[in-house]
From TrEMBL:
This is rRNA adenine N(6)-methyltransferase. It catalyses: adenosine(1779)/adenosine(1780) in 18S rRNA + 4 S-adenosyl-L-methionine = N(6)-dimethyladenosine(1779)/N(6)-dimethyladenosine(1780) in 18S rRNA + 4 S-adenosyl-L-homocysteine + 4 H(+). Its EC number is 2.1.1.-. The keyword Ribonucleoprotein does not apply. CDD domains: AdoMet_MTases (cd02440). Pfam families: RrnaAD. Belongs to the class I-like SAM-binding methyltransferase superfamily. rRNA adenine N(6)-methyltransferase family. InterPro entries: KsgA/Erm, rRNA_Ade_Mease_Trfase_CS, rRNA_Ade_methylase_Trfase_N, rRNA_adenine_dimethylase, SAM-dependent_MTases_sf. Signal peptide: none annotated. Part of the small subunit (SSU) processome, composed of more than 70 proteins and the RNA chaperone small nucleolar RNA (snoRNA) U3. One of its GO terms (molecular function) is 18S rRNA (adenine(1779)-N(6)/adenine(1780)-N(6))-dimethyltransferase activity. S-adenosyl-L-methionine binds at H30, L32, G57, E78, D106, N121. Keywords: Methyltransferase, RNA-binding, rRNA processing, S-adenosyl-L-methionine, Transferase.
Length: 306
């Protein structure tokens, strides 16, 4: 009769199992258990002994402990108080205790302190808001090496013309250089997620582009609602026209500018698109430079998106 191999479990996971702690999928808790993947992520992040490192969702501390070995300080942000207690136990009475700062709470609602670098296996359901929270964080950090759901990672790095190119792609690439580092199979996690994962390196552009990001986001939101349509068609939608007209009237009021009686916002928008040479272009083929020129063309005519 063939031998049945006993299931291997990490010591920390055994301890947690004994206490009846179940990983909470509502928090996106899929603990990265493969030490080789953890080491590879830390190697690719270029950690320095003088760094303050941010980790989001440290879980049981597998990555945290390795990071504490390499940097001056780790700031770990964890929402689950049960796992916070486990992490505190792991460092208690060790030289690492003084190097670890734990922030308990939702990272999206937390004002993050200064950090040099961020390395994390993040909860996948907060991927998009977290990316922009990090990219709009000041002062600037050097880089972030983050684990994402594979399709989300592919969207981050997608280029104009790619099938997955979208508003997320262009908004991220406006603010940062983004590179795909490696793919990670679902069996490297406990419990395994339903999807494959990828690790991405995000390096903020410093200085950032001289652009109002809220305005930029408003423009790309309109253009990418139907990314395969021409911009001329995208800007004919009644709700879009109504919002732009309202913004235009506010702009004129603030600048004591009189609006002609025969003013037609729809016609004005089409004239700007045509003069900028983008009326027949589609969002899926346009890059950051194209949208920067278009935003400037709209703003110089008093039309704003925020």
């Amino acid at each position: 009769m063939p031998k049945i191999k006993a299931e291997k479990k990490a010591r920390v996971h055994n301890e947690i199992a004994k206490q009846g702690i179940q990983f909470n999928k509502d928090f996106g808790q899929h603990i990265l258990k493969n030490p080789l993947i953890i080491t590879s992520m830390l190697d690719k992040s270029g950690l320095r002994p003088t760094d303050v490192a941010l980790e989001i969702g440290p879980g049981t501390g597998n990555m945290t402990m390795k990071m504490l070995d390499r940097v001056k300080k780790v700031i770990a942000c964890e929402i689950d108080t049960r796992l916070v207690a486990e992490l505190q136990k792991r460092v208690q009475g060790t030289p690492y205790q003084s190097k670890l700062q734990i922030i308990v709470g939702d990272v999206l609602k937390t004002e993050l302190p200064f950090f040099d670098i961020c390395v994390a296996n993040i909860p996948y359901q907060i991927s998009s808001p977290l990316v922009f929270k990090l990219l709009l964080h000041r002062p600037f950090f050097r880089c972030a090496v983050l684990m994402f759901q594979q399709e989300f990672a592919q969207r981050l790095v997608a280029k104009p013309g790619d099938k997955l190119y979208c508003r997320l792609s262009i908004n991220t690439q406006l603010l940062a250089r983004v590179d795909m580092l490696m793919k990670v199979g679902k069996n490297n996690f406990r419990p395994p997620p339903k999807v494959e994962s990828s690790v991405v390196r995000i390096e903020p552009r410093n200085p950032p582009p001289p652009i109002n990001f809220v305005e930029w986001d408003g423009l790309t939101r309109i253009a990418f609602v139907r990314k395969n349509k021409t911009l001329s068609a995208a800007f004919k939608h009644s709700t879009t026209i109504a919002a732009l007209e309202k913004n235009y009237k506010v702009h004129c009021s603030l600048h004591n500018k009189e609006i002609p009686e025969d003013f037609d916002i729809k016609q004005k928008v089409q004239e700007i698109l045509t003069s900028a040479g983008v009326d027949q272009m589609r969002a899926r083929t346009m890059d950051c430079d194209d949208f920067m020129k278009l935003l400037h063309a709209f703003n110089s005519e008093g039309i704003h998106f925020a």
